[in-house]
Each structure stands twice: as structure tokens, then as C-alpha cells.
Amino acid sequence: NVILRQGPTFLPASGAPMFNFISADVPSLPIFLTLCLVAFIAGIMRGFSGFGGGLLIAPVYSLFMPPADVVVLVIGLNLLTTIQLLPSIVRAVDWSLVFRLFIPSMIGVPIGVALLHSVDAELMRKVVAFIVTAMASLMLLGWRYEGKRGRLQDGTVGLTSGLLTSIGGIGGPPTILYLLSDPRLSVEVFRTVCLMLFFLIQIFALAQIGFAGSLTQAQGGYILILLPAYVLAHWVGAVFFVRYVGHYQAQVRQISLWLLLFVGFVAFAL
């Protein structure tokens, strides 16, 4: 009953999120359908490419809910959908690369959790939107990291990803840009490394958020409500990857990046 009574609150004048899990009523049908539609599109993107789900969800959901709820929903949805992919990706994972990135991320995660409740919600939304917009713009422009690669660079990228995961649910940009710039990685290895790395970071981040006392029944309720759309879309994206990788990959990537750019720009401007 408590979960069902959580819903939207419109408080634009105060700078607070328009949607509050803690003290509001059941969300209106348009808002609920918006949340489901965004989850479905994000699920297709992530199922196909291995990334993009949280990048799309975070800036949109931040228009309607507090930062802590955005982070938990992004992490919860991604964790539960990654589990269904684990049997098919484990054998293709470059574990050495995954752990070179994951271990440093364990330093960034608690820093992000500490900042999660101390940063203004409006500022957090702007930061998330800016990061998504900047990341999409750099990828559309074809920017590639051409510097040195080693433990220091891997560690910096991992730490930053851990920080951004726990503070905004968007730990992907630094890792994605870094790995996409490596010509040695095949499409399949890139996808599996992203999925496994973010899976491990998100488990650790969710545990840290739980230790900080920021997990609520309402968050769990909304994860369960949105999960069917996200799971279905994730499966569609994964099937599309298996059947059409190498044929339409470039087109899907371009569409996804333009969508992220649009969403990030709109979320930043509102």
C-alpha cells in the first residue's frame, strides 16, 4: 500500500524534482507511460550495444524524481536485465580488462554515494544532462582517445565510472569512450566488457547506497513495475544484436547517439 501511494509531485518553482517517490500520490497515466516508454527504448539500446540504457533513463527520470531514486532505478533495472545475459557473455569477457577497470571504480563509488545527498537535485540533473550531451556529441564527432593505455589510464577511467555510477547512475561515458577508441577490441568483446563491468560496479554501488540507508520500498516497487518493459526491450535488443550485428550496427549506433544528444539537451534546458 505504501508503494502504491508514491507518485508525482510538480514543484518546478522550488527547483525540486517534478516526481517524488516519498511524499506524493500515484503518478498520472501520461507520466507512467512516459517512464515505461523511456525504459523500453533504453532497454533496446542496452540490449543491442551493451550501453546506453542508463544514459537515456537518467536525464529523463531526473525530471520527475530525486537523484537517489534515479540512481537506484537505473542500477536496479540494469542489474536485473544483465543477469539474463550472463550465460551468453561470460565466455567472451576479457576478465583482465574488466578487473583493471573495476578495482579502481571501488574507490569512486563511495565518494559518489557521499555526494549523492549533499548536491542540489536541480544541479545534479544539469550535471547528468551535460555529461550525456557531451558524451553523445563526442561520439557523433568521431572523437577517439589516442593517448597512452596502461594501468594508470585504466584506473582513472574505472574510478571515474564508479563515481558517476553512484552519483547519477551514468558511469558509462568515460569507459565507453575509452574502450571504443581501442582498435584492438572487437564489437563482441567491447559489448561483453561493458555489460560485465557495469554489472559489477552497479552491485557494489547498490550495496554502498544500501549501507548509507538510501534504499526504500518505493524504489523497489517502481523497479518491479518498470521491469517488464525493460526486460522485453532488452531481449529484443539482444536478439537484434545476434541476428544483425555487422549489418545495421552503424545505423543503430547513430540513431542511439542522436537520441541521447536530444534527451540530454532537453533535460539540460528544462
How would you summarize what this structure contains?
This protein has 270 residues and is mainly alpha-helical. It contains ten helices and two strands.
3D structure, described in words:
The protein has a two-stranded antiparallel sheet with strand order 1-2. It is mainly α. It is globular and about 50 Å long. The protein starts with 6 loop residues before the first strand and ends with a helix. The protein is 73% helix and 1% strand.
Overall helicity: over 70%
Oligomer: single chain
SSE run? EEHHHHHHHHHH
Number of helices: 10
Can you count the beta strands?
A: 2
Which structural category do the helix and sheet elements fall into? Answer: mainly alpha
Short key terms for the protein model shown above:
single chain, mainly alpha, globular, two-stranded antiparallel sheet, 2 strands, 270 residues
Annotate the secondary structure layout.
Layout: E1 7-8, E2 19-20, H1 29-49, H2 53-61, H3 67-89, H4 95-116, H5 121-140, H6 151-168, H7 172-180, H8 187-211, H9 217-244, H10 249-269
Antiparallel strand pairs: 1-2
Helix pairs in contact: 1-2, 1-9, 2-3, 2-5, 2-10, 3-6, 3-8, 3-9, 4-6, 4-8, 5-10, 6-7, 6-8
